[in-house]
Amino acid sequence: MTAVPASRCPRPAAANDTGASAARPPTPAAARADASGSAAAAPSHRQPLVEVAAATFGYAGRPVLRDVSFTVEPGSAVAVIGPNGSGKSTLLRALAGELAPLAGTVRTTHRPAYLPQDSRPRSDIPLSAFDVALMGTLARRSLWRPPRRGDRRAAHAALAAVGLAELRDAPFAALSGGQKQRVLLARALAQGSPLLVLDEPFAAVDAAAAGELEELLLSLREQGHGLVVATHDLASARRFDRVLCLNGRQLAFDRPERALTATTLAATFGREALVIEGSGRAVAAAAPHRHSGHGER
Amino acid sequence: MSATCDPVAALPAASLVAQPLAAAGLELALVAATAGAAGWLALGQRTVFAAESASHGLLPGLALAAAIGAPLAAGAVASALVFALVLLVALRAPAAGRGPAIAATATFFLAVGALATQASASGLRPERLLFGDPLATTTADIFLAAAALAATAAVLARAGRHLVAALADARWAHAAGIAVGRLRLLSLAVTLLAVSVAASTVGGVLALVLVVAPAVTVHPLARGLRRALWAAPAVAIVGSWSGLALAWMLDTATGATVAATLVAMAAVSAACGSAARQRGAFAPRRRKLAGEQGEP
Known about the structure:
heterodimer, A: alpha/beta, Rossmann fold, 2 domains, 6-stranded mixed sheet, 8 helices, 12 strands, globular, disordered N terminus, B: mainly alpha, ABC transporter involved in vitamin B12 uptake, BtuC, about 75% helix, disordered C terminus
């Protein structure tokens, strides 16, 4: 069974196996059909941007992640947590359409703007921050159609949205780690998808820059974007609308206060989680691990 | 201006009249612009070694074209296509491995080219095929070079950003739905075309210099893709003309002098870029962003 863009198939009724209801009020989806900026294409109503139902994922027929069911609605942010090898990157690859589920269904209304964990433009090609952001608009264009003025405006607006308008001409390779992550986020915004799928976007930056990035990501909810973000930072995950706990299978999908309990975290991380005793609240997980090859196995 | 200060008057051989010089200059400008524009793709593909080997593999086509009186560029393009096909077969050999397969294929084509040159009854000078002779440019060569430049410019204008995206961040480009595989093939085709037309002008041995050296020259000083894409052809033209002028004034082999000039420019650029980087000239104009630190 493969990931099927909903635009090409009848939409099923929204299903959420966890029974969690949408917590956030509807947020205005920012129209972006004119490629005028970083806002997402207007999603239709409050239909889920992502629907995953009873899905199993794996490689070469061997499952690595089972029993996954969740939805992502416009204007909501889902944190995906789990230890290394739990299946986070595998799930995100499937959402991006790189990997077909072995069983179950994955439906997305749009091709997501996907930021793989190990994706970063090469430093030996002279790209400016604007060049990288402009790449995002290419996802909407066929091979022989170069970017137009509207695309350039969209790239400028995306850089402005991440606070780097003044560095648009700076060489990408000369930027700091946090600035590079912002530029990559601008590239994702310039893709114009209402669904952002980001694999550990805070992994290569210091804590302060990660905090700024987190603020930026969460602010995108207000523009109608749906976010799926893999993270090792439990404190950060608490600020998302939903938390999806994985460790070879789905252990929880719920609001943070209900998902991030000591019991669930113990089942998710085992010994890797750092839990503050007394409050029963976990505030941090194991150090991020950069993968190579084809994601987590 | 007195006659002694006139550079044309100082040119050595009586046979070197203005017309061959103009033809060579025009041919070199067209070829250099093509090669310079394609240089980024050769570097981006990280296939410079394969391209270098391919330039040697052009010799049979060059020899055949010279023997039958066809434009050298046409022979080089045909040879490049055959070379690419044979290389694809060689790369499938289970015991070979990439490097040995490329080296063996290139050597085989070089040997075939040498034999073809020897067997030719046209009085063909092998050194012309190996090291080029821009002063022997024909009208057909110029038209072919112009056509190659037009094709390269059209590809880069229509698909240049896609090409660079696929080369710079293939993982992301694939996830974004960009046809990375097709773009890699397109990039390879543009590179082979550039190497072929360069080989017809500066010879099979020196052809890759014309493709790679301008991009290498621009790289240390480039701050963005658009400027780099424009600067590389400009550098290639300036370097080629400088080499041509030096060859006339010093009475040296034209192809070799052009190649040496381009390499010298790349070396100077690398030194300047290194010095500028040490002075912090490439640091981004930085707006104060709380909490951000530079990468180690």
